[in-house]
Amino acid sequence: MSASLCCSKLSCGGGHSGPTHQALQAVFDLQPFRPAVNLSNPTITNISFTLYAVLGVNEKTQILTTFLWLRQYWQHEFLVWDPDECDGVTKISLPAKKIWAPDIIVYEFVDDDVSQACPYVYVNHTGHIRWDRMLRLVSACNLKIFSFPFDMQNCTFTFGSYMHTIRDVRVSPALTFQEMSQNSKRYLEASGEWELVDIVGETSILKFGVDEWDIITFWVVIKRRPVLYVVNLLIPSSFLMLIDILSFYLPPHSVDRASFKMTLILGYTVFLLIMNDLLPSTANGTPIIGIYFSVCLALMVISLLETVIITNVLHHNSMKYQEVPGWVRVLVLKHIANLICYRWPAGIKPPAAAQEDQPDVPHGDSGLWVIQPASQTPGQNPASSAGIQLPSAPELLQICEYLRELHAHLTSMHRESELLDQWCHVGYVLDFLLFRIYLLLISCYALVIISMWCVWISLS
After folding, report:
1. What is the spatial order of strands in the sheet that 211-224 belongs to?
2. pLDDT value at position 73?
């Protein structure tokens, strides 16, 4: 029977539409053997697939899960019959387990195949077999997440025989790579956060020792949809940074700005803990968005440190009632104030200029001016002439002592007020300077991040 099959077509008995059961059973008995009359001729297998779904991307384990519609074609030289002798039957379906099939696998496969099996194949009267399979492919992929969430992944699917070398099985694409890409884009349903960019491939030969295998390598390029991460991560973080910038407009002398900034840092930390599950984690590197969050937190800490410095200048130094050093007055109140265009309050001169314009006032021993009426002649007592009893000398001395103490107290309060105003102006000028430096840092940092993401988007 086997010898007759090798040299003739399948027979179709009377009353049968198609090859007879006995003829097919003879083919089934040859299932373990490659269906070639001349074993020196390799069996050519044509492969095509349609990417139907992107089920998941695991950055930590570097695994891509997809669902494919896989189609294979090959020639079975024993399954040939004449349609004219078989009532015009040109195609039949046979159990896939009953006939020989090439052992085509995906080299990147890292898990068990749990997809639904297709138990039948279609056989043409010329011996041309088509086998459609649904394949849940869990494959290894070198995922690069540095540009997350604007990243693009390029994963490889390598199809080839597991045991048969190039002398026994050859593989080739059933469709052009452009047609596979267009079909996948047309039928792609469950993509989630990923969208298909392109499918390209090439045929090559894999050498291992003295043996060679014929393989087809497909590169599946997918791109992440960043809307979810922009809305849930970047926009809230930008709002918190904006609030931190606006907090510089709080008056540092009357409002506890440090407490507000510490609360803001605490809220930002809680935000990072809540959104930590959305960030990909891998041992290969850190995504740029993680660096972005870390730098934002560092900028908030720098902002809090600036507030601590300004608070110390406004309160600690003024509580000691120390004189503002001359170099501080010249450097801060004159040069830096002019550099940042500091606006002095109406009616108030810069302390440095006010001190230069202040005239010298003579001070007596008691610090009091004695006013004597011009109409009074020396030696004449106006109180006695008016019948008023004057206090005695000890009482006058006591009154003068009280007046000296009152004058000293008022002078001290005025001096303290001047020192407080000077230190307040020093603090305000430094606050304006540090705020502008902080704003410049944030602007440069934002431009760098946006430029890098724009470059990656344009390249993709």
Report:
1. 104-106, 152-161, 211-224, 194-208
2. 94
Could you tell me the two tokens for 97? Answer: 């387990």
Regions of the chain with pLDDT less than 70: 1-8, 14-16, 190-191, 253-255, 282-284, 315-392, 412-427, 456-457, 459-460
DSSP code of 365? Answer: S
322: tokens are 């120390």
Give the span between the Cα atoms of 257 and 17, in whole angstroms. Answer: 92
CATH of 2-225, one of 3.40.50.1100, 3.30.70.100, 2.70.170.10, 1.10.10.10: 2.70.170.10
Number of residues that make up the chain: 460
Residue owning tokens 């969430």: 149
- In the chain the first and final C-alpha atoms are separated, in Å, by 60
| Architecture of the structural domain at 229-352+404-459 | Up-down Bundle (1.20)
For the chain, domain boundaries = 2-225, 229-352+404-459
Residue 360, classified by CB atoms within 10 Å of its CB into exposed (0-12), middle (13-18) or buried (19+), is exposed
CA distance 391 to 178: 117
Please choose, from the candidates 221, 206, 309, 182, the residue with its C-alpha nearest in 3D space to the C-alpha of residue 257. Answer: 309
Q: Specify which residues 124 forms β-bridges with.
A: 91
Instruction: Report helix, strand or coil for 40.
Output: coil
